[in-house]
Amino acid sequence: MRVAVIGAGPAGISASLALVARSVHVTMLDEQPSAGGQIYRNLANVSAEQAQRLGSDYVIGKSLLKQLEQAIDNKILTSVSRASVWSVTEEKEVSWSIDGRSYCQKFDAIILATGSIERAMPIDGWTNPGVITVGAAQILIKTARYSPPSSVLVGSGPLFYLVACQMLEMGNPPKALLETQNNTDLLKAFIHLRPNLTSLLYLAKGLVMLAKLRFAGVKRIKAVRDVRIKSKGNAHIIEFSKVGTKRQIEAETVLLHAGVHPNIQITQALGLKHDWSQENHCFEPRTDKFGRTSLKNIFVAGDGIKILGADAAKISGKCAALALLADNGFLNAKADLSRPYRLHQKYVQIRKFLDVLYAPKDWYSCPTNNIVICRCEEVTAGKIREAVKIGCLGPNQLKAYSRCGMGNCQGRYCGNIVINLISEMVGQTPEETGYFRIRSPIKPVSLAEVANLETII
Ligand SMILES: Cc1cc2nc3c(=O)[nH]c(=O)nc-3n(C[C@H](O)[C@H](O)[C@H](O)COP(=O)(O)OP(=O)(O)OC[C@H]3O[C@@H](n4cnc5c(N)ncnc54)[C@H](O)[C@@H]3O)c2cc1C
């Protein structure tokens, strides 16, 4: 049996290791230069000292990468890096591109572990040079040991505080954090807090990060809203209001973050069912508790199903692999998969707390008309509202009206905002509005590459 695992983050690596442990051959494909996904990005290439600075959750990845290395050395696992997967078919044919050349191979089963994407935060000035996402800043830190100077972070979410602390450890503390959550969010979130060990550990991690930032004297301004950025070269003035008072702060770099949501491009392109998550304000692929989809032998694992973080992603990867093995006779079909599933569920409760506390805010989820929503095609919120006024009812019709979602990112970045704007104007639920119809190639490839597609037998 040959299995393709797409994504070499904690979910993809764990799934691959569970499969090769049962002598199933795995081809693991990832667009990054080395395995690790988002959390363990570039871990194989950084020094022990640098890894320590980025925190224990980062260093932990070393043991997983070691196991992966051994499996690769034993030739039971093929890991293909720099491989950007642009098509996955119901017949389990996978096509990917490496340095301008494309390959295609048919597999018996596929596990999609493509992780998460940062949520768009369309505010005035978000497309200006020098305004990037918190995740992008972390990629610079992990791959180039570069931490943007005199930065102000705007937004909220676990990654927001983690990167602020990593910048601190890099000796370049942020100038200030402008936080969008307020005390009402905190009160609402407390309803979801349960005194179980996993939740308490998560809370403790968060409180330690906040204490580090306080001890380092990093300014935190909470309950900010209506943020807009005026830029001149690499000088930015960030205007914002807090309880009705207008204020401003200067920065050399502005880092935005409004949380993460599953990367659903491949699951959408496969035509799989998706459900709208009220908690995380996004579409999530519909699977059973082990990641089985409505297509036989196509599974989803990790943050690509639901955002639960790296530890849960590892367990989810293992669950998908065990279900695959059970469904294909490599495990007693009645094999008891309940234990890994119970472990995985421990992360759901604390996630509810985090999702409510750091829920996206209306003032940027349904921005004013002048704000660019589709960065690829420079379509503004006003253009989208105009299209709805003249009869456009959904994201796919909107493509014809405005080319919104037809650019290089194929709507993966603007999709959720477009859904919010249309749902609000038409007075329907995001589920009724639906998502962009995604077609392969889901990543840009040249016609020459497609014409010269090399089939691997
Ligand atoms: C920018 C960013 C930074 C993050 N940093 C952290 C962090 O420091 N700590 C933390 O706890 N959590 C972090 N997270 C959250 C992170 O999602 C999870 O913690 C964890 O990494 C999820 O594991 P996963 O295996 O499900 O997905 P991921 O780790 O996201 O791995 C998915 C992999 O799939 C690859 N991929 C996706 N689409 C394709 C394609 N079409 N072709 C080929 N490869 C593809 C991606 O490049 C990635 O390597 C981050 C999230 C983001 C978006």
Structure report:
The model has no long low-confidence stretch (mean pLDDT 95). Helices cover 37% and strands 23% of the residues. It folds into 3 domains: 2-117 and 261-334, FAD/NAD(P)-binding domain (3-Layer(bba) Sandwich); 120-258, 3-Layer(bba) Sandwich (FAD/NAD(P)-binding domain); 366-433, Orthogonal Bundle (Arc Repressor Mutant, subunit A). Strand 4 (84-88) and strand 5 (93-98) form a beta hairpin. Helix 1 packs across helix 4, helix 6 crosses helix 8 (197-215) and helix 7 packs antiparallel against helix 11 (338-357). The strands form 7 sheets. The protein has a 5-stranded parallel β-sheet. The protein has a 5-stranded parallel β-sheet with strand order 9-16-10-11-12. Strands 4-5-6-23 form a 4-stranded mixed β-sheet, with no helix packed on it. The chain has helices at 10-20, 48-53, 56-59, 61-73, 134-144, 158-169, 183-190, 197-215, 265-269, 310-327, 338-357, 362-365, 381-389, 395-402, 415-426, 430-433, 447-451, and strands at 2-6, 25-29, 77-80, 84-88, 93-98, 101-106, 109-112, 116-118, 131-133, 151-155, 176-179, 219-221, 224-232, 235-242, 245-251, 253-257, 260-262, 274-277, 282-285, 298-300, 372-374, 379-380, 454-456. By secondary structure, the protein is of the alpha/beta class. Flavin-adenine dinucleotide binds at residues 6-12, 29-32, 37-39, 57, 83-85, 113-118, 135, 138, 159, 162, 260, 263, 302-304, 309-310, 313, 443.
